[in-house]
Structure formats: C-alpha cells, structure tokens
Specification:
By secondary structure, the protein is of the alpha/beta class. 34% of the residues lie in helices and 11% in strands.
C-alpha cells in the first residue's frame, strides 16, 4: 500500500514534533516544511532540521520569508519578550509574541507544496487550550482556512484534491500532548520552544512558551529534558 503524502509544518518545537510523529503513526509519508522568517533566534530552526533528519521525513524544505520587514512582534522586532507572567495571565489577550499573519503565510506555502505533491493533507500543531492566545491557533480559523484553500487551488476546483488540515493537538492540554508524543517515542530533548534562548540554545525558562512547556512536563509527570539557563528554575 502506497502511503499518502502529507505536508507537516515543522517549527522544531514540542507541538510540531509531536504532530510529525502522529502523522507518521497514521501512515502518512511526511514532507516537512520549516521557515526562517526573521525570528530573533535560529535555535528552533536548527532543532527542526535535527528532528526532520531523525524523523525519517521524505523531504525537508526550509523557506526564507523575512517578516522582520514588517516587525510588529517581539519575535521579529526590537520588542522585549514578556517574562515571568503568571499562568493565569497567559492566554488572556494577544501577547506581543504574536507574529502578524504568520500561520496564514505558513499554511499558504504548505498548500502550494501539497498541491504539487498531489497531497490532500496538511498537519499543523496549533493548540487552543495551553497556548498563548494567538488568533491563528483557533479551530474557527483552521476551518475557515481549509474552506478557502479548497476554493483557491486548481486541484480543488477540478475535484482532484479535497484538502484537509489536520490539527491533532487542538483540544489537548500540553500534558496530554507530551504523553501522546512520549507514547510515540518522541525525543523532546531535540526540541526548542523558548522565545528567547541563549546563543547556546538554552531555554530562558521564563517566557510564556517555557512556562507552558514546564507546566506540561510537570502535569504529565514526565522528566523535562529541556536545557534551561542556569538561573532558570525548572519548577512551575
């Protein structure tokens, strides 16, 4: 039986690495897509390359899109990354780490690649529970994009392709995601989630992404393999 091809958005973070493992477990042949979009660090992108190499993807493409030209985010502009926010505050409002239209841009590239691969399946690690409040991680956004995508391609109009955007993590807590990935053999020590890592790749332990990651490992009762800066406490 020939495996169905799927395009996986792979950032090198915890969620997208889990999604890659899920896609493979469901019998898809994964094609990984990552972006060098002008983010303030390349540690996550380096992690994506390592995850793709060890994850047995059919092909891994890294696209250069310089979103620094627009700025407007702590990840692409000279804006401080918020640190040490309470877990109750994370998810309230849209933080300055939101990158304008990022998922829309990424999914558009994934859609283009999927059409050339004759693939009807995209996988993305968006999550609407333990997340930072980004509008392009919500189920209604994904549904709207999927509908648009099937109107926007030659394959969709001609009936050769009915695109499905798979979001296997969207209703899972971070702990549930980590448990699922661990069951599938994901090596989370390869992944990087931090918004503001050191030049050596150590996580800050204080940004929203680090706090959610630490919370997830703690609640899953699974040892956290993340390399944190010396001063950062691993406890939540």
């Amino acid at each position: 039986m020939i495996a169905r091809r799927a395009v996986i958005l792979l950032s090198g973070g915890l969620d997208s690495t889990t999604v890659l493992a899920i896609a493979k477990s469901e019998g898809f042949e994964p094609y990984a897509l990552s972006f060098h979009y002008g983010q303030r660090h390349v540690a996550e992108l380096q992690a994506a390359k390592l995850v793709a190499a060890r994850g047995g993807v059919a092909n891994h493409v890294v696209v250069n899109v310089d979103l620094r030209q627009f700025g407007g985010s702590a990840l692409t502009d000279d804006i401080d990354v918020p640190k040490s926010r309470s877990l109750s505050d994370i998810g309230k409002g849209i933080p300055v780490t939101y990158v304008p239209a990022r998922n829309t841009i990424f999914l558009s590239y994934a859609l283009a690649w999927a059409e050339t691969l004759a693939s009807s399946d995209l996988f993305v690690g968006v999550n609407a529970l333990d997340y930072s409040g980004y509008p392009d991680c919500r189920p209604e956004y994904i549904r709207a994009y999927e509908q648009m995508a099937n109107l926007a391609t030659k394959a969709g109009v001609e009936g050769a392709q009915q695109l499905t955007i798979h979001t296997p993590l969207i209703e899972l807590t971070k702990a549930e995601i980590i448990k699922r990935g661990t069951e599938l053999g994901v090596d989370y020590s390869l992944t990087v989630s931090c918004y503001d890592p050191s030049t050596g790749g150590e996580a800050c332990g204080e940004c929203d992404s680090c706090l959610l990651r630490k919370k997830g490992f703690s609640e899953a009762r699974i040892p956290d393999p993340t390399r944190y800066r010396e001063a950062a406490s691993v406890a939540v």
